[in-house]
Amino acid sequence: MAATRPAKRIGENRASTQAGMFYFRRDRGSYLLTNDWGHFARLSEKDFKRLLADKLKPKDALWRQLQAKGFIRDHLDFNGLVRDFRGANSYLFRGPSLHILVATLRCNHACLYCQSGAEKLSRTDTDMSLETAKAAVDFVFQSPSPDLTIEFQGGEPLLNWPVVQFAIRYARARNAAENRKLHLALVSNLSVMDEAKLKVLLDHEVSLCTSLDGPAGLHDRNRAFSGGSSHERVERWIGEIMRRHDTGQAPHRKIFKPSALMTATRLSLPHWREIVDEYARLRLQDVFLRPLSPIGHARRVRDQLGYAPAEYLEFYRRALDYILELNASGTRIVERGSAILLARILQRRDPGFVDLRSPCGAAVGQLAFDHDGGIYTCDEGRMVARQGDPIFRLGRLGRTSYRELLSSPACRVVCAASNLDGQPSCSRCVYKPYCGVCPVHSYETQGSLWGLMPAADYCAIRKGMFDILFERIDRPRSLEIFEDWLRPGQGEEHDRAERPARA
């Protein structure tokens, strides 16, 4: 993988009068160019110099290619380019669409990397009440977004099943009058799932997401369960949900395939092949590889379980290449994190992933409702509050109006801090059209909402992933597989919710 060099930006003070504003960097002997319309091009050094010297002519194929992508200043197709920009930034005009309801803080797992600071099973005082759940659902429908996702989390949300069941039914009833595009999702470790709960969830078209860190030995080491093998429970219910998906479809409802997330600890890095094979064995259609998060309670284990960005990127590169090999040999499996980035790169559209927005989705794209009625910019912001710092708190159900929430200092500051045009390094980065920053991550790791991106592991990992993907985009067979991953009807079941957080 080529090292990421600082990108440069050709703008108003350039010598060239032909080239429009773009970002670029030298990469593997050629130049990668991007622009704010979301287009990219790769030029040889010779062609790059021709562009800057105004030596390209309209009769040249390269000139026509660059003109169609918005790189030629005086020949811009404004209607088409504005359409591209609108598609990539449609979230700016919708309001919050992802709403996380924390049904309880209780959990029966003791995961090594837990972010949320789960409570013991006896702490029923950390359960969300029916009244709070109703108020949260009512608040969700104040959002002007035509698409709404309510995601139930915890702790382990199924431990507060009466409230989860009530909120599901109440949300469906509310939407009968509202007629929004409503999606309901449950993020669960599946350890207390049973047939009765599953029937209610599937009858109400709730999609189910769990955690699967790999084969049993690795998974159970990362995710200790008081009731025995966590992996055994996960495997059982993934299989059952998959069976229901295959055999239980009906005209009046849709059963979604189960999905799973994996979190890479230091223990995971040598096992990239086994992790992918486990997902394939369980017939999961994608794997979402994720680095360890240093937010909330997870900060305390970063030294024991963490790794350098280069170590994670080597794990990611090997896993991705193996996934591409499987696809080339006929086993279709998608690396979901890559597919999200590729939707930005290849289709110039917003894939609904709030971490890749400018400003990020905190408060304006998602909200988190804690068990006690507190409203936060995002679930990560709620986790920071669990450590005693309420900086990301927006208000409280029953006390804060929707207008007051969006006008609050917390909302304004996270929008300002995550606007890439206000980030000195990001504003001139070649990956700016596709990327985003996380103020919570910056705050937790660097003590500043803005952070210093060149020194941030978050930035190093994200840039490294872009490097790896652009290198593979240049390979015709890999590009063909990537385009298949993004084809309509392929994997749409996992594109609904903006950002499944954890299980």
Structure description:
The protein folds into two domains: 8-88, no CATH class; 94-373 and 487-494, Alpha-Beta Barrel (TIM Barrel). It is built from 18 helices and 16 strands. The protein has helices at 45-52, 61-68, 78-88, 130-140, 161-178, 195-203, 216-222, 230-247, 272-281, 302-305, 309-328, 336-347, 379-386, 402-406, 409-417, 439-446, 457-473, 476-486; strands at residues 8-10, 22-27, 30-34, 40-44, 98-102, 109-111, 147-153, 181-187, 206-211, 223-225, 259-264, 286-291, 334-335, 366-369, 374-376, 393-396. The chain is globular, with a radius of gyration of 23 Å. Mean pLDDT is 92; it is low at 1-6, 11-15 and 492-503.
N-to-C span: 32 Å
Spans of at least 5 consecutive residues whose pLDDT stays below 50 are: 1-6, 11-15, 492-503
Rounded average pLDDT: 92
The strand count comes to: 16
Instruction: Give the % helix.
Output: 25-40%
Major sheet characteristics: 10 strands, mixed
CATH architecture level-2 label of the largest domain: Alpha-Beta Barrel
What is the overall silhouette?
globular
Question: Which structural class matches the secondary elements?
Answer: alpha/beta
Strand order of the largest sheet: 13-12-11-9-8-7-5-14-15-16
In short:
With 503 residues, the chain is α/β, with parallel strands linked by helices. It has helices spanning 45-52, 61-68, 78-88, 130-140, 161-178, 195-203, 216-222, 230-247, 272-281, 302-305, 309-328, 336-347, 379-386, 402-406, 409-417, 439-446, 457-473, 476-486; strands at 8-10, 22-27, 30-34, 40-44, 98-102, 109-111, 147-153, 181-187, 206-211, 223-225, 259-264, 286-291, 334-335, 366-369, 374-376, 393-396.
